[in-house]
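Q: What changes when magnesium ion is included in the input?
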Amino acid sequence: MADIIQLLPDNIANQIAAGEVIQRPGSAVKELLENAVDAGATRIQLVVVDAGKSLIQVIDNGKGMSETDARMSFERHATSKIKQIDDLYSIKTMGFRGEALASIAAVAQVELKTKRAEDELGTHLIIENSAVVSQQPCACNVGTIISMKNLFFNVPARRNFLKSNPVETRHIIDEFIRVAMAFPNLFFSLSINGAEQFHLDAGNAKQRIIQILGNSYNAKLVSVKEEMDYMNVHGFVGKPETARKTRGDQYFFVNNRFIKSAYLNHAINSAFSEMIAKDSFPSYVLFIDLDPAQVDVNVHPTKQEIKFEDEKIVYAFVQSAVKHALAQFSIAPSLDFTLNADIQQLDAISKPFTHEQKEAVASSSLFNTFSKKNQAHLIEPTNQSELKHWKSFYEPSALNQASQEKTLTQQFAAKPLPMGNDQLSLDDDSPFVSTNSPLSVHTTTQYMQLHYTYVVATAQSGFVVIHQQLAHERILYERFSAASHGAQILSQQLLFPETLSLPPADAALLQGLLPSLHAIGYTIEASEVEQHCFQIKGVPADTLQGNEKHAIELLLEQFKHFSSEVKFSNREKLVRCMARQQAIKTGQALSTQEMASLAQDLFACKVPNVTPTGSPTYVSFSEGQLDGMFQRLM
Ligand code: ADP
Ligand code: MG
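A: The predicted holo structure follows.
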């Protein structure tokens, strides 16, 4: 009897191997993008047609390949990344198994154009069924363009196993995102059926996360950073409110490789315990960097699972890093009660009250709520004798007191007449409708910023505490609102127009908003050459400058959230969104000049007291109120 064992022909061996590495279009996307990263590219473009079933193309500006290497790269076990087995333990590249291109060439029609910087001409290679159909010199840019056509054209059984286009597209996008998230310093784009869906400019990790997960994450990321001798973890976790009911935005990278690890996921979940509902999942993007010798990445054909040398340490480290970050975020900054020199000089603090002021306070309802029985805030008057004791302790002797009172009265006579207290009191029936500015008219108003959030401004008899962001929102709202009804608004032309390219749905939305945006001072034009692309050429004067593109994207995001509220016209929605978005934020330091114009602009508003959505923009305190609180009435 004849022997029956024979070696499989290359193309069949490769097809079998391909079963592990290339399961669907998404897996090819992952391999090709990783090859571009490994080749040192800084710009990587992915083009997909028909969910990758007809075409997957990756264009990179990496180092390219020589004529021979181009051919070699499609051989099984052909790699430039390792030479011996020990290299596996110092691996810094994404690939190393030398299987991807061989597998792809076994199950699709492949076209490659590649050129190195040192070569005059590049190589153009066509491969089908693992066999070279043609190889020719060609003129092309430095880098590589690899096109994979008709995946599984020669393995119909596997082609039939592919899912619907939306499902396969989703897989492609997932793989694209995982690579793009891991390398924020590189430019990535993804175009699907001719429409650019992602355009990710190089930036830092946070910018990349926001580019990908959306602007709604902007203020909701808590930074994680912990370093240890042989390992460090960095990245972001979403604040508890970003937790989802479905396992959504969870990304774990070890040495920039996206991995799935139920074990480490558990470490993060447990760090979040008590902070989010039991059935929801925290969002996170975390990068662990450690010595490659401490991980085995060769335990899974697509390398999505890895083995740590000491898993328990990694678990504990990740968990404590996340806990630490969350603790820093949730503990409110401790309030600083020491008054600085500026505030000590405020009239309200340094000067005593007049008799009229005391009376005004005593009759105010705020004071009454503090002083009437059965009221929630009643402060029981302390035992008089005890109080006296303390008074005498703190107050100057009777003699001194008399002389002091005199000098103070003299001082006070020089002071402008206090405005009616009703305009400043907290408890007035309509406390904020005053169109008069409570700010001092005759004396110079003093300004001070507290916690980078509040502007304290001296008023004629007392002081107002303005919330900088809410106040500015009101100011901008009135300004934009007037502009949208025909008032002149100053527009400022940008020196460098910004280009904005949007997903199709957003582009349609923005197109519809252009006339209204124009009315409030924006100059935005749809690009004539590129679809879904806009140029921002001018912005309203006096708004935050710098990231106009981001501002418009944020606007679209907010606008979408508004869409359920039918009661507003589009224009009103737009004005509200713009005002909210362009308002100076808390956390921003303001100069005295800026504080002064904020206060003046606020009190020049028609309705200075509340934001368009009804939050108070400022509260005012009269000297009398303070006096009342300290029981200095009698
Ligand atoms: P691996 O990435 O595991 O080495 P691949 O089959 O993915 O194996 O690629 C084989 C080889 O082809 C790589 O080691 C690399 O030298 C070369 N190569 C693949 N893609 C590119 C590219 N885009 N630019 C330059 N060289 C590439
Ligand atoms: Mg590879």
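Observations recorded in class: Confidence is low (pLDDT under 50) at residues 331-354, 364-435.
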